[in-house]
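Researcher: Structure prediction, please.
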Amino acid sequence: MTHAPSVSENRPDAVPDTTPETAEPESGTDRIRRPSRNQLYKTLWRWHFYAGLLVTPLLILLAVTGGIYLFKPAYENWVYKDLRTVHAAQSAKPVPLAAQVDAVRKAKPEATIQSVTPPSDATHSTMVTLAADGGGPWAPTVSVYVNPYDAKVLGSVDNAKTFMQKVRDLHGHLLSGSVGDRLVELTASWAAILTCTGLYLWWRTRPRDGRTGRRGLRRWHATVGAAVSVFLLLLIATGLPWTGLWGQQLQKAITATKQGAPSAEDYKVSSKIPPTTADHLTSNPDTSVPWAAEKVQVPNSQPADGHEGHEGHAGHAGHMGGQGGSGAAPGSMSIEQAVAVAHRERVPGTFTVTLPQGPKGVYTISGKSEADPAKQRTLFLDQYSGKVLASYGWPQYGLLSKLVEEGIALHQGERFGLPNLLVALGTCLAVIGMAVSGVVMWWRRRPSGRGLGAPRRAQDARVTRGVALIMLVLGVAMPLAGISMLVILTLDRLVIRRIAPLRRFFG
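Model: Predicted structure follows.
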């Protein structure tokens, strides 16, 4: 999610199609007599300038961290190659998954085993995820890797301390929880406004002359901004579903319009015990259910033969103390049987089996594919009978959910392989270049000792009202940006305009 064309143009008062670069600022009378389109140009330029000045530092941070995170799969496969890959003879047979999980339980007896990801092929290890105590969204987990042929524990990775997790935390919430999340959402929203206003400024000027100096920098800034604007808006739009406020509102809209996966009521399997929704099953983004299934209610297993009374086994089950080390309550099926159901139901690719949480918990099988969201599948299995209580996949997703899932794959640079990654990376690099060039242009032409050098206010009230209406529409679409606009306009009217030094400083 990110970024946009920048901080300012070359001069605060120049109207490029009619005024030469070296012209002096025109008088107030001249400004009033200019056509309204020039007044519109100045007004949007002023918004573009102040928006860029406000969010440029965070835009650069988001562009840098976003560009780095695109390489997470390749980076982690390289760094953890010794843990994730194994070498075995062609005739070697894997030991039961329950035995592999038992090996982890013996190595980490104090830990709660959360999920198991079977090997994707004969050269990969089994990953067992341990839940961490405490923490909020994306709380730290530990991944333990096991050789599937001899159940030997190869090592573990504390996911809270990995380089890519730090990058993710910076990109998602600036290492500051919900406050950081709101700042990221605000930055992304203003980045969209920067992009739209920048496109208008480019369309009005379309600079063709000058390849060096200030004109050359301005030409580069405007041309690159226009060239990547579509990709930039796409990155912003596909990143917003992860944010707190905007993402929550989108989830509510999808639920209200029945554009998500079918509700639990449709399957008559609503849950009355926590976790009530699938996003509470795990805190590890690598083993979580797809975004479209996060708010699906988790059904209950139906204990048989008097197992209803084994509530005391809930903690025991969480620590992999069930039959055969399956992590389920007594009388439940083994993890191998759960995997067999996944194969029978044709869950594609690499999938994760999240273990039941207590006697009424279910096996959750989550198959995610960033390269092709249509291959996603989430199953809830009764831990005793193996019955598929609910199945969610592409056919069940509504239109909005499908668009979000496609967007997530594009945002992470995986939907169309290497071309997708290169386009996303190029957009991030372009944002950094535009942000830096915008600051440089402003620094070169700032008036010494006379404030910020912002474009002057438009004098045409009709233009001002028209721009206010446009900004209102954008503010409704992006609530945090709308709230910040109201704050800015209120300060401008009640404080800045009434205090002469502030009025001169802000222009």
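Model: Confidence is low (pLDDT under 50) at residues 1-34, 267-274, 307-326.
Researcher: Thanks, that helps.
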